[in-house]
Amino acid sequence: MNMKMISSSSCCCCSSTFVPHLPSSFTFLKPKPFVSNYKQFITTICKMEMDGPNKKKKNRKYGSSRKSILKKTLKQEQVTFTAPIDDDHDPVVGIIGGGMSGLLCALQLEKKGIRSTVFDTGIHGLGGRMGTRMIDNGDEQQSMIFDHAAQFFTVSNPLFSELVDEWSKKSLVRESPGVIGELQPGGHFFPFSSAPPRYIAVNGMRTLADSLLSQSSMVEVVRPCWISSLEPYNGMWHLSENGKHRGQFDAIVIAHNGKCANRLLSSSGLPLIAKQMKRLELSSIWALLAAFEDPLPLPAAAAAVPFEGAFVKGIESLSWMGNNTQKLFSSQKTGPHCWTFFSTASFGKRNKVPQENIPSVTAEKVKELMLAGVENALGLPTSSLQTPIYSRVQLWGAALPTNTPGIPCIFDPLGRAGICGDWLLGSSLEAAALSGIALGNHTADYLRSGGTRPDEFAVGLHDDFKPLQGHDIGQFPGLESNKEIYEPQLLTGA
């Protein structure tokens, strides 16, 4: 599984190599005259982006609704780069998003000899849905660690299997011997008797993400950085963050989804890509991180060997409970017992609020309901669960895909832009990895072709979406209830 978590104008500058489109900040401003000087062009863009949010303009809306963004998406003009890719410099790709798919896309480009820059919003590290929260109390035994998105992953694809073997040899991941199963109300636990190997990152999922680029020489990482606009100029894509120019690139990759990606694409000049992204439907899930001073009283069926995690059935406020301490340290650690609890998607939808600003009353309500769900699942009397010594709730507003086109990646050769992510093949770390590798290969082949045969490289711009089945916290190839796992035919290009 893998979880974490993140406008249009008809007047534009002209160029012999493409038909550009102005960014979101131009939407409700008067058209500006043609700007022939590059420095003046960038200065104008930056000034207008910085001025826009600070000036209240009548009818100004920043893509606040799905409908408004979709309307803008359908109206925007297609950016078309017609000139060959410049032979005087080595191509470079801008990758927006540092989760599994974005990182493996960058590494695959490096294998093909192509440089890239990964832009990620992470303050504490890379990873996207491979998020880990670490709380250091100055005492190793009292420190707390929570995987608060992806809990573990399984392997079914041979290509991904080779990759995981490499990670294992580097001691980045290991198989988890712990017991998992299904937990029903009243403390009825049913361990999975036969299941595929489950893998975890040795020191939390985020450490895997942070380690992937450790030996890379052709990938630059910029974080925390929130790319706010994409602007084509003089045959290149220019990326900026709230008016600050962040570089120019021969091609771009969108390696994240949700509301922020939709806003970014709504005025990018990539209507076909934006339209496909708009078809994606995402669930909302609450995560509760809770540390307890004493072990939780587990059901009798799990008492002999404490379970590492359980898919919870029949309780709306709870779909998963995982023991991070048991998973990462087994019996070696005597400090707080750290658990990650996830709600169901229906509970997330019913209690959804803006995830950037969760009201305290909602946070407290969600916490109480989820802890009550834990009591119910474990068969404990009401209000008998010990009070956590630490707790934190987080809403994954764009948690997991519920539909998919079942293709490894999307690529628009006219606009020299692509998308990768788990949602293109499923909702797992494996799906994210395969998608990133596929787009890295495809983008490299396109760039090496000189960009002069675009018709041969268009991928996924019109594919239909199908409903996606799986657990509320994602897909785990090989486990039960994963009947809609897509076996991708990875793109190798022309």
From TrEMBL:
<dbReference type="Pfam" id="PF13450">
    <property type="entry name" value="NAD_binding_8"/>
</dbReference>
<dbReference type="InterPro" id="IPR036188">
    <property type="entry name" value="FAD/NAD-bd_sf"/>
</dbReference>
<protein>
    <recommendedName>
        <fullName>FAD/NAD(P)-binding oxidoreductase family protein</fullName>
    </recommendedName>
</protein>
